[in-house]
Design a protein that fits this description.
Glycosyltransferase; about 15% strand
Length: about 525
Amino acid sequence: MRIYSCRSILLLSLICSFPSISPAQYTDTGRRGAYFPKKQYAVTPVPRFAQNRASLPAPIADASPQYVELYWKAWSLAFDHFKQPPAGSPFVSNYVDEAFSPSVFQWDTFFMLMFARYGHAVFPAVQSLDNFYSRQYENGYICREIQEADGKDYVFVGREHTVNPPLFAWAEVESYKVTGDSSRFASVLPALTKYAEWLEQYRRKPSTRHGLYWNTGLGSGMDNLPLAGSAWVDMSSQMVLMYRNMAFICRELGKDTEAGRYTAAADTIAARVNSMMWNEQDGFYYNLDDDGKQLPLRNIGTFWPMLAGIADHAKALRLLSHLKDPQTFWRPMPFPSLAADEPAYQPDGHYWLGGVWAPTNVMVIKGLERYGRETENATDHSFEEFAHHASKRYLDGLVTVYIETGTLWENYSPELMMRGNPSQKDFVGWTGCGPIQLFIENVLGFRPDGAHKKLTWHIRRIDRHGIERLRFGDVTATLIAQPRTSTGAAAEIHVVSNRPFELTVIVDGGAPRTLPVAAGAQRLTVQ
C-alpha cells in the first residue's frame, strides 16, 4: 500500500474540522456497480512492450534526442504496469497500475490515461475506469483507493479522506478526443450521474455562505499541502470541469436537455467561484471558510479554474503572470505545488510542500492551452507559447534526473534537479505524462481530434521534427517538418496517411491554415 511519512503539516490537515460524517454517506448495501453494465471480467492478454513498440507513435526531434529516449523509457515502464485483475478479484477489466501499491487509485489512474491513450490501439487504457464504476456504491459513492485482490475499499485514516478529484468525465472525454470512440458514453453516463448526485449531497457543507465544495489533503491528492476551509478552489473547479464534460457526453448522445442542465450547473458554480474566491488585489483564487472569508495560500490548486474555463481572459492573464514569476512558480523545474515564497515551501519538495508533480503540471499546461485556444484577443499567443516553453523546461528537468538515476520518479524537487524527497522510483504512473503526453502535444505540438478526423499542429521548432504512426480515430499518419533556417521561415511538411483527414497548421504562433490531407503521401508548404 502507499507509504505516507509522518509530517506535522499532514497531521494538522487531518485534525482540521470537516463536515460531520453521516453513516449514510458510506453505507455499502452490497449492491455494487448497479449503474455500470459490465459485470464480469473476460480474460484478455496484456501486451508487452517489445512486441508492440512498432505499433506505438514514434516521435522525431532531431535536436532533442534526449526527449525521444525518455519517451521510449516511459513506454517501457508503462507496459510493465499494464495488468490483469488477480485471480478472485471482482475487477471487470484490465487496467493501468501506478506501480507500487496493491490498490488502484482514482487520482493516479486519471492521469495515467492522459498518456496511455496514445497507445490505445495496443492497450485501451480507458477501460481502467471500469473497475471503479463496477465498485460504485448504490448511493453513488466511489472510494478513491480500491484493493486489487478483493475489490474492497482501502481507507487510510478516515472515510472523509476517500474522495478524489471528480475527474471521471474529463478522463472519458479526453480519451475520446484521441480514440474517436464514443461507444463508452452511454455505458458510463449513469455511473457519472449517480456519482455527481453523491458529491452534491455530501461534498457541500450545509449552511455555508458560499455553497461550494470541500475536500481534504489526502482526498484532493495533494496530501500534506496545508489547505483549509469548507470551500476549496480545486474541488469546486473540478466540479465545474466534471459538469462541463458530462454536458459534452450528453450532447454526443443527443441528450440536449440533460446537457443544458449540466452546463447550467457548471455556470452557477463558476459564478460563485469568481465572485467569492477571486482576490483581485493578489490575482489568485483562495479557499473559503464557512462565512466566505478567503484563506490565502498560493498553491498549485489555484490554477484549476483555468482548466475548468472559470477564469475570464483578464483573470487568466493574472494567473499566467504568477506562473511566469521566478519568485513563486517559475522555478528551475516548473511548477512547484506551493509558491516558493510561502513560509512552508521546501526546496527538496517534501511531497506537496513544493514538489513538482505530473498531474498538476498537466492541469496547468492544459489550462494554458485552453486560453491559447479560446482567448478573447485573437493576437494573444502568450498562453500557447508559454505552455510550449514550460513543457520543454519540465522535460529538461526530467531528462537531467533520468541521466543521473536511469529512471522516472513520482515527483521532483523544484530547485535541485533531483527526485523529490520522498519519491517513488520507476514511477511511470502519472510521470509518463511529461515524456509522452506533453512531448507529443506541447513540445511537438500535435492536438488530435479523432472523432472528427482532424489534427492541429503547432510548429514552433526549427529542427527536423514530427511523429510517425500517430493514430487518432481510424487515421494513422506520419507527419515530419523539415529543418528550417529560423523561426518565421516557411515549414515544409511531409505527410503519409492511411485515410483522408483535415490538418490545421499554425507556424510560430501565426494564423492557422487548414488543409485537406488525402490518403497516401504528399508534401505541403505552410508559411
